[in-house]
Amino acid sequence: MQHLKNLVEAALFIAAKPLTLEELKKVKGIDIVPDEELLGVLKSMEVDYDSHGIKVSEDSGRFELRIKDEFIKHVEHLAPNRDFSRATLQTLSLIAYKSPVKQSEIIEIRGNRAYDHIKDLIEKSFIKSEAHGHTNILSITQKFLDYFSLKNHEEVKSYFAKKIEKEDKKAAKKNEENQPVEENNEEKKNNNSESNEPQKTPESEKFNKEEHMVEEFNKNVAE
User: pLDDT for 25-75, tens place per residue?
Assistant: First the structure.
């Protein structure tokens, strides 16, 4: 029993992603173990790790060793960051938010350097590329979701949506606090006609929000 636990522990430790029972059973020594017994071993390991800094975590039939939530903030700065440069991570964040998205759109926003980022991310299986006319469609992969502990594409979108809502509320409160004394209509008209500042449009505001959200996501996964 202990030998089997050790094998499972070693498999979960070395894996770059959460493993299903089927994937665990590709390990010699675990391959002959019935699913029910293997689940029992994993359950027993959960108890074993109860007093440790890590735990056996299960989500949708996929198992992994994870740091307990209460210890993450103390050790996350030690993580070998991680597989990406900061610039590549920013490109990945943008792709994740817009996924699926045209490669040409990412290049337009991030510049030609993004070609190298995209190539690197495809090679590492964090995104995939499919031909679409004169460009390619980029989308995140299951490896991306596993790596960042996200369940699905909707959870990625939800993350950004919550960031938008939070920042909108902060901005609204700040504007309210700094609101100047109301001008009369004639003064408003004169000020508007004299102002050289570009007018805000729904499109520009949307772009600024997206840009801010991507930066927030990047901070969370890069720092």
Answer: 999 999 999 999 999 999 999 999 999 999 999 988 989 998 888 987 787
Prior bond to 100 cis, omega within 30?
yes
Residue type at 10 in one-letter notation: A
Domain count for the chain:
2
Rounded Cα gap, residues 195 and 202, in angstroms: 19
Q: Do residues 137 and 59 share a domain?
A: no
Q: Which of 76, 94, 124 is the last residue of a domain?
A: 76
Instruction: State how far the Cα of 156 lies from the Cα of 214, in Å rounded to an integer.
Output: 11
Q: Quick one: tokens of 57?
A: 């975590």
CATH number at residue 162: 1.10.10.10
Q: Which residue, among 139, 143, 140, 136, has the nearest Cα to 107 in the 3D structure?
A: 136
Chain centroid to Cα 47, Å, comes to 30
Residue 63 shares a structural domain with residue 89: no
